[in-house]
Amino acid sequence: MMAEAAVGPQPAEGQQPAGAELAGAGGPLAGRHAIVTGSSRGIGRAIALRLAADGARVIVNYRADRAAADEVVARIVRAGGQARAVRADLGVPADVDDLFAAAADAFGPLDILVNNAGVVLSGATGEVTLAQIDRVLAVNVRGSFLAMRHAARCLRDGGRVVNISTGYTRNPNPLVGVYTGSKTAVEEIGRSMAKELGHRGITVNAVLPGLVETDGVTDTDRARFAEVAAMTPAGRNGQPDDIADVVAFLVSDAARWVTGQTIAATGGLSF
Question: Of residues 179, 212, 240, 246, which has the active-site annotation?
Fold first, then answer.
C-alpha cells in the first residue's frame, strides 16, 4: 500500500485543521474527516467531491487509477479544500489496515466512512469461476467488513457509516447472484453495527442506487439504460451526483435519527 503526499493547505502547530475554514466553511461537514473507498471514479468520485464541498477533509481511495484519484484531489484543492489520495486494494486485509493508518496520519480521528469500493460480477451461476467468486467476496464482503471494523474502533462519537449497496438486493436479477449476495451481506452487517454503536450517536445506513450513468457505461448498456429510464417516474437514469446528495444527507447532523436503514435512491423506480 502506498499513500500519496497530502495536498491542500496544512494547519500550523496548535491551529484548528484548515478544513474547518476552507471549502465548505460553515457547511454541515466543516472540520470532519471522511474516507470514501473507491472514490477515483463514478459514484465514489461524486461522493468525495460532495463531502469536500460540504467542508470535510477527504481520503480519496483508489486501487489502480492513480491519475484519476489525483484529479479528484486536485479538484478539491482548487476549491480550497483538503484531500489525500491513498492507494489500497480492499481485497487485501493489510491494505485496509494501511488505508486507515494513512487516514489517521493525514487528518486525525475519523468521522465518516463511505464504503463504496466494490467488484461487480455478471455471469451465469453454472459458469462463474471460483476465482471470480473469491474476488467479489474478498472486496465486497470481507473488505467492507474490515473497513467497518476499523470504523467501529476509531470513529468519533456521532460518526457516520454509509455502505453503497445495489437495487438488486430488492429486485434480484439473473446473472448477478454472487454480486447481489455480497451486497446483501454488507447491508446486514451494517444493520447489526447500527444497533451496536447507536449508543455513541454513530449511525450506519446503506444506499441502494438504481441504474447510474457513469464513465463505465458501455454502448452495449445504452439500450438497457433507455428501457429503465422509460420505466422510471423521474424519466431518466441516475447520475453520480444523485447518489452523492443522498450520502451527504446521511452523513450530516440532519440524519442523526436515521440509522440501520436501506435507502433506495432510484428516482421512484420500485425495487
Answer: 179
249 domain residue, yes or no: yes
Query: Could you tell me the sign of the dihedral formed by the alpha carbons of 18, 21, 25, 28, in that order?
Result: positive
Domain count across the chain: 1
Return the closest-CA partner of residue 110 out of 30, 28, 32, 194.
32
**Pairing state between β 57-62 and 203-209:** unpaired
Residues in CB range of 260: below 8 A, 6 or more apart:
190, 191, 194, 195, 198, 204, 205
Give pLDDT, residue 24.
46
Question: Above 90 in pLDDT, residue 233?
Answer: yes
Evaluate whether residue 2 is within a structural domain: no
Instruction: Give the amino acid at 38.
Output: G
DSSP state of 197: H
Distances (CA, A) of 42 to 96, 111, 121, 190, 213: 21, 23, 17, 23, 8
Tracing cell 469536500 back to the chain, one arrives at: 52
**Confidence band for 27, pLDDT divided at 50, 70 and 90:** confident
Q: State yes or no: is 62 an active-site residue.
A: no
Angle at 82 between CA 87 and CA 99, to 5 degrees: 25
Give the domain range for residue 184.
18-265
> For position 151, which CATH number holds?
3.40.50.720
